[in-house]
Specification:
Number of strands of chain A: 0
Helix content of chain A: over 70%
Structural class of chain A: mainly alpha
Shape of chain A: elongated
Order of helices and strands of chain A: HHHHHHHHHH
Oligomer: homodimer
Strand content of chain A: under 5%
DNA sequence: TGTATCCGATACATAGATGTATCGTAAGGT
DNA sequence: ACCTTACGATACATCTATGTATCGGATACA
């Protein structure tokens, strides 16, 4: 997050990407001028065009980076929980889920940026394919920990783990977006829809 | 949908609104120039500024109209089903749900327009409040028909009807968006996520 | 310390969008 | 049929964004 101020190419690119994430989240890709992004990063457009071809290229890199971060964060957390011996008898599956979901970059700006990425995926078929691929990876990670829990004999599901994982993803996204709309701050947002998500988990679990 | 070509104020406004719906869906609010909307409608900007204050005003009117249409379509359908005696023993609750959901303007452009409206609701608190209010109305309608089914003694839910209705809305939205991303055409989209939605209904129903 | 190189700032040319002011014309009333 | 009014087209001035070409200065290396 905090980026040094020395003068190196990589550093400049990182600061521009960070600024772009904020500005794109706030006003959208089309609403954001290259100038605005540069100003936020403390540069002029000279720096921008020296590092990126166009606003579109910057956006693609940003989206790729965001996808990578999300996927690997979830995957790391899942691995950690699995190795950590969190899957003991009497463990709290709802709590586990929430721990995983909380990594999704679920602050206000994160939600807005993901929404911007999502709408872009809706307009551009190729980009959409990448978006869906990234989501499949996240679903696979969630599915994996669900399977781990199941094979530990701690509970049974009423649905295939993959279906359950996808439902959880969709529900989680829907709840965070609505939370952000309702003006929840970042702290509230972090547990937004926890209620509903918990109830969904209850439904998924075979009593 | 088909709008006469006579020269009257109301007609002009309607054609501009219709064109705006298409263009906004395709390229987004910020990506759409007033010129592009006018061109699509077969007018010049003169007509536009004679009828609307700004692009923003046009968008607000459009969003309002869309909300109105969606809410009343769902409400009408629910009333119709209730009066129609569809709630008989052995009725198919999943089919009922799908019939209701299919009204949401779930063609490709409809999905994209709603996404545009949604992201706008995310950026503007006041607009977001209106968006959530509209959604609450739709949820209320769905909740009502669920309650009708329940009080007819046809089934029992494992959750409060309101929670169930909200889950269905969110899941339906998520599935149609993903369907549109995956390149499903309008016909496929109409049943998009029907599988998952059906499974969710199964979960909601007390066996 | 001197020098070559890299990187970001500045300046400029161009394109596109906006909003307004004016003009021409079609419709409606008498 | 004439006149008035209303509506949309055209033309124009302005503003903003973009991309490029050039310049200045900091950094790294000898």
């Amino acid at each position: 997050m905090s980026i040094p101020v020395t003068r190196s190419r990589e550093n400049t690119r990182a600061r521009l990407l960070e600024a772009a994430a904020q500005v794109f989240a706030e006003v959208g890709l089309d609403g954001a001028s290259v100038e605005a992004v540069c100003e936020r990063a403390g540069f002029t457009r000279g720096a921008f065009y020296s590092n990126f071809e166009s606003k579109d290229e910057l956006f693609l890199m940003l989206a790729g980076s965001v996808a990578e971060v999300r996927v690997s964060a979830v995957r790391a957390r899942v691995d950690e929980l699995a190795a950590d011996g969190a899957l003991v008898a009497g463990c709290d599956p709802i709590g586990l889920l929430q721990q995983i979901m909380e990594l999704g970059g679920d602050d206000r700006l994160g939600v807005m940026l993901m929404s911007e990425i999502r709408i872009r995926a809706l307009r551009d078929a190729q980009f959409g394919e990448a978006y869906l691929a990234q989501e499949r990876e996240m679903v696979a990670s969630i599915e994996q920990i669900i399977d781990d829990i199941i094979s530990a004999g701690l509970l049974r599901l009423r649905l295939p783990a993959e279906t359950a994982a996808r439902m959880l993803m969709i529900m989680w996204e829907g709840m965070t977006v609505r939370g952000a709309m309702a003006g929840e701050d970042d702290a509230q947002l972090r547990h937004s829809g926890g209620e509903e998500l918990g109830q969904l988990v209850q439904l998924l679990i075979e009593s």
